Amino acid sequence: MIEDSKLVARNWNSRGLEERAKYAEIQNTTCVLAPDTIFGPYFVDGELYRRDVRENQEGLDMYLDIGLIDVNTCEPLSGAFIDMWHCNATGAYSGYTGINPDTVEAYEGVTVRADGTTDDETFLRGFTKTDESGIAEFLTIFPGYYASRTTHIHIAVHVNGTVSEDGTNTLAASSIQHVGQIFYEESLINQVYEMEPYSAHLETLTRVTNDEDSLYPSASSAGYSAVISTQLLGSTLADGLVGYITVGVDVSAVFDTSDSNPIGVIPTVSLSPGAEASASALDASETLTV
User: Fold this and answer.
1) pTM of the model
2) Is 44 left (phi over 0), alpha (psi -120 to 50) or beta?
3) How far apart are CA 224 and CA 211, in angstroms?
């Protein structure tokens, strides 16, 4: 985690998102449509409306700023919701902690539910809204990896989403305009994975590189780069990272979710009592209000 002293030294505890985000405006204004990919097997619906998604997961802290551009107007896309989810430092996804990242099979003795999930954990998942400049920011950790895939983060964009009024703060009456996956430079991945807790996983599973990955080529195609730009948060890598990427979206598109994952359904997480209030309180304490 980023130590409080580091946050105070950078005055980040007393600033709102507009000042706090490293990138307050769209950085790469090239008006290019980001190719759709797939949800993958680990998406769930009903995620927490928040910006800090870490939930005490160990790993290298990272602020991830995502800028959305409407490719029909080439203007920043404000007021859109972004779902973001990825695995932890050892390759496990919340909701699927009973799945072994090294084999992508259930651990012995684990019961897999009909929707493919094994639990109601919520770490490293969430959704938030882009500001007037088309920027949304998450506080997360650098992802790990699992069998058959390179290091990546999943995103889904909801242009016409609304937040439910039933107290659950989930997305309601929302279609999806884009489903994508975003990546990192190989050199950065290698540096991060020399650190704990990432390095221990290299002893049990040889990771797939970007060049070997099945989805990396299509995600970075047609003139679009799906690679996150990064800068050091402090003087060393151990201080954390700030990442940025621009995503071009066709606001008139509607993503077909009928073949969303191997089970054929989109699981809905069952949030524990007080989960929303706890997430909102944490964001507020870090001035990461949504």
Assistant:
1) 0.91
2) beta
3) 16
